[in-house]
Amino acid sequence: MRGCPCAARRAGSRHATPLYACRSTHPPAVSPKPVEELAAKGARIAAKLADAVTGADVVVTMLPSTPHVRDVYEGTIFTSARPGTLLVDCSTIDPTYTRAVGAQAAARKLRFVDAPVSGGTGGAEAGTLTFMVGGAPADFEAVKGILQAMGKNIVHCGGVGESWSGRRMTALSR
Predict the structure, then answer these.
(1) Residue 77 to residues 16, 81, 121: CA-CA distances in angstroms?
(2) Do the beta carbons of residue 77 and residue 108 sit within 8 Å?
(3) In whole angstroms, how far apart are CA 39 and each of 5, 11, 33, 49, 132?
(4) Pick from 18, 34, 88, 93: CA 20 to 30 A from residue 8's CA?
């Protein structure tokens, strides 16, 4: 459950633009407890995910699995984000689907980077995660400061989906 500690660290950073948390209303449902914890730390609770996405310049997601990512991107984010919005998915999911999300985002004139993490819940709480980022260089630079609020090492690995080469190298180095 890295998303909640990461969001809490981000809430206290200089990148503390409005932070929204939203309860999942679609299967597979995510526990409401992390959302409640974030609310206690000052996050705004969006009644619907669309409320959090509409008008945002940057949308960061960190979800448990590919079905969760599919649910929020295809169900809401793609239809609610305005052209030019930078989408950042920090979920550790199937790289084939990550590339598909990137292609769907580009077709909708949305920017997208994938940034899976290494370091576990302890790293999320301590702010020492490593983010392996796949995406355009300009988008990497745009999101780097936001990710630095949540982690220690931010590495650009190439285009969308290439972050997985970084994940493999991290696993091999252990």
Answers:
(1) 21, 6, 26
(2) no
(3) 12, 11, 10, 15, 28
(4) 93
Task: Tell whether pTM > 0.70.
Answer: yes
- Amino acid (one-letter) located at 12: G
95 upstream amide cis, omega within 30 of 0: no
pLDDT-derived band at 49, boundaries 50, 70, 90: confident
DSSP 72-84: HIIIIIHHHSPTT
Type and span of the H or E element at 132: strand 129-134
Residue 163 pLDDT class (50, 70, 90 cuts): confident
Supply the range of the domain harboring residue 10.
3-172
Query: Which H helix or E strand runs over 112?
Result: strand 111-114
Tens digit of pLDDT for each residue in 16-31?
445 555 555 544 455 6
Domain count, the chain: 1
